[in-house]
């Protein structure tokens, strides 16, 4: 669609919201669709459900929501192969005993549409690759298969994951069941997130370069686990950036993330030790940092280098209210809530001491005699090369980059996949090489908060703007609460990039674990969330993939404790979308 027609496109989106019907279900179907991954596994081990019965119910539910485009069209066409794979699991369990199909016992798991798979086409959202099967499974899919999961097809994505909006010409736009149907499902893992939110599966695979696990989790009331770099293997995912890309998970229950992590990485012993320590650790021995700058209040001076045309703003009143409630609940549970900012550091660029994050993100370093953006642009320099390598090596497809580029259509201001692809030309090789130096500097700054204030995790608002709509992303009329000349804040129209970029790209290039945590909905039925951040890896472990497998373990168990405390408050619990809740009797 011609982006110059953005007003007409915005109106088209407004006139065509998602209006799914309530599904009439039997008691047994409702029971199975409500299950977490852990509940299914326990039932399968006990023999009270078969792999095929569970898969049949999930696949039928997937097909019920077909018009919301959670999966790519080829998965809907091949839906029966999912049930066939589950029947094969049952046959093996019958022949060799149920433990032969452990530890996941035929759990159906949707794979993000960017991932290379041999069982389903691997198009990465591109119409030109719609019928291409990979020559081998990507590394993470292989881990699931080794653990005896069933690959539950491929979820919808924007072309090569290059958007915060999940849509493409061949598979359509993925709809969101919240907020009267006008919300986006987020991107680029919007298909996976929407499927989890609809109870099509309890957990799905995602991937995050600049919010692609976390933003869909926010939009769909899911837990979104974006691990530190290489915690999960990334081989076979086409990738945008060698520093930022990371496979992750969306789930309705955080304990399913804790269940899968040791199973997939063979780190059960490390998890057991941390769990034992947490069992005797009091809430009073847990500290949560709550800095405002830059993720809750973004206030930078006029002499800051502002490559992305960001605004001085703060998170919306509805999200700020949930954030403050979360702080109060944790403090009331005995958790030490630390309301401090990053320490100040000397700055040559600003000519005065400034907040260390301000110095890191808004200081123009001038590399190779060119302006250097500290937030994200140089990290995307390798994008088109990574796409070309994946298409040729993993798919063996004879398709040119030029053809892929031409097939990636824009749809309003907020969805332009080729805009991300263009950074290969905007930045240069010397700036890309400088990323590793800047990365180490950013890691030191990030960890300085933990060391200075003695905290275990950081909690911020989930994002700056309220849940994103198709209409307002199309014509850059999203509501962002911007600072006025008198110091007050008022809602102004803003682009999707101005709303999302700092929240999701700001420190994505360093290995820091993150979990989006749903906190219910606002008074308009829109999802809300807070985001937990862990400490980055030690600098001497920056490129140690073996260490990456265990770095996040303590963080995950801390988040589990904090989630339990937050969700004791009914106002902060995850809420199902109205039609989903009505269908399942929730």
Layout of strands and helices, then pairs:
Blueprint: H1 6-15, H2 27-34, H3 37-46, H4 51-64, H5 73-77, H6 79-96, E1 108-112, H7 139-146, E2 150-155, E3 167-168, E4 172-173, H8 190-197, E5 203-208, H9 214-220, E6 223-226, E7 246-251, H10 254-265, H11 268-279, E8 287-289, E9 297-298, E10 313-314, H12 317-332, E11 336-338, E12 344-345, E13 354-355, H13 356-361, H14 383-395, H15 401-407, H16 417-421, H17 423-426, H18 429-453, E14 457-461, H19 470-474, E15 478-483, E16 489-494, H20 496-505, E17 514-521, E18 527-533, H21 545-551, H22 553-566, H23 578-584
Parallel strand pairs: 1-2, 8-11, 8-14
Antiparallel strand pairs: 3-4, 5-7, 6-7, 6-17, 9-10, 10-15, 12-13, 14-18, 15-16, 17-18
Helix pairs in contact: 4-6, 8-9, 10-11, 11-22
What does this structure look like?
- The chain is of the alpha+beta class.
- Helix content is 39%, strand content 13%.
- The protein is built from 23 helices and 18 strands.
- A hairpin with an 8-residue loop joins strand 12 and strand 13.
- Helix 8 (190-197) packs parallel to helix 9 (214-220) and helix 11 crosses helix 22 (553-566).
- The two termini are 39 Å apart.
- 55% of the residues are buried.
- The mean pLDDT is 96.
């Amino acid at each position: 669609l011609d982006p110059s027609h953005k007003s007409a496109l915005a109106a088209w989106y407004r006139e065509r919201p998602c209006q799914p019907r309530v599904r009439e279900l039997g008691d047994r179907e409702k029971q199975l669709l409500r299950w977490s991954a852990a509940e299914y596994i326990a039932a399968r081990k006990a023999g009270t459900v078969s792999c095929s019965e569970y898969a049949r119910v999930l696949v039928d539910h997937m097909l019920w929501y077909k018009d919301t485009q959670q999966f790519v069209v080829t998965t809907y066409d091949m839906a029966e192969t999912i049930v066939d794979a589950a029947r094969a699991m049952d046959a093996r369990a019958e022949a060799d005993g149920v433990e032969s199909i452990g530890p996941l016992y035929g759990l159906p798991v949707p794979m993000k549409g960017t991932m290379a798979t041999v069982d389903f086409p691997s198009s990465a959202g591109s119409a030109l690759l719609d019928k291409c099967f990979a020559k081998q499974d990507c590394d993470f899919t292989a881990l699931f298969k080794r653990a005896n999961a069933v690959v539950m097809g491929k979820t919808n994505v924007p072309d090569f994951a290059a958007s915060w909006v999940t849509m493409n010409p061949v598979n359509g736009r993925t709809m969101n069941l919240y907020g009267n149907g006008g919300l986006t499902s987020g991107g680029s893992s919007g298909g996976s997130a929407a499927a989890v939110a609809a109870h099509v599966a309890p957990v799905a695979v995602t991937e995050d370069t600049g919010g692609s696990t976390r933003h869909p989790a926010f939009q769909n009331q899911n837990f979104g686990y974006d691990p530190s770099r290489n915690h999960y293997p990334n081989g076979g995912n086409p990738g945008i950036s060698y520093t930022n890309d990371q496979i992750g998970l969306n789930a309705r229950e955080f304990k399913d993330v804790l269940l899968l992590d040791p199973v997939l990485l063979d780190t059960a012993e490390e998890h057991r030790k941390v769990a034992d320590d947490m069992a005797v650790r009091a809430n009073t021995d847990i500290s949560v940092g709550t800095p405002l700058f830059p993720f809750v209040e973004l206030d930078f001076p006029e002499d800051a280098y502002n490559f992305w045309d960001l605004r001085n703003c703060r998170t919306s009143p509805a999200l700020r209210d949930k954030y403050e409630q979360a702080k109060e609940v944790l403090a009331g549970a005995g958790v030490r809530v630390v309301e401090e900012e990053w320490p100040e550091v000397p700055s040559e660029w600003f000519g005065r001491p400034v907040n260390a994050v301000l110095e890191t993100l808004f200081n123009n370093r001038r590399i190779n005699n060119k302006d250097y953006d500290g937030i994200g642009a140089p990290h995307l320099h390798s994008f088109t090369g990574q796409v070309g390598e994946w298409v040729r090596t993993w798919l063996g497809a004879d398709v040119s980059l030029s053809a892929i580029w031409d097939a990636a259509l824009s749809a309003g201001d907020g969805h332009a996949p080729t805009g991300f692809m263009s950074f290969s030309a905007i930045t240069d090789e010397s700036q890309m090489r400088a990323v590793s130096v800047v990365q180490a500097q950013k890691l030191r700054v990030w960890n300085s908060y933990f060391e200075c204030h003695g905290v275990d995790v950081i909690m911020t608002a989930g994002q700056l703007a309220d849940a994103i709509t198709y209409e307002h992303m199309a014509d850059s009329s999203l509501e962002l609460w911007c600072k006025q000349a008198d110091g007050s804040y008022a809602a102004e129209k803003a682009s999707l990039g101005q709303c999302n970029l700092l929240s999701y790209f700001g420190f994505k290039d360093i290995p820091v674990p993150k979990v989006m945590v749903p906190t219910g909905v606002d008074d308009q039925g829109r999802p809300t969330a807070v985001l937990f951040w862990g400490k980055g890896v030690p600098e001497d472990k920056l490129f140690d993939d073996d260490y990456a497998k265990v770095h996040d373990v303590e963080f995950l168990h801390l988040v589990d404790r904090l989630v339990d405390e937050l969700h004791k408050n009914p106002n902060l619990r995850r809420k199902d979308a109205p039609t989903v809740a009505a269908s399942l009797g929730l």
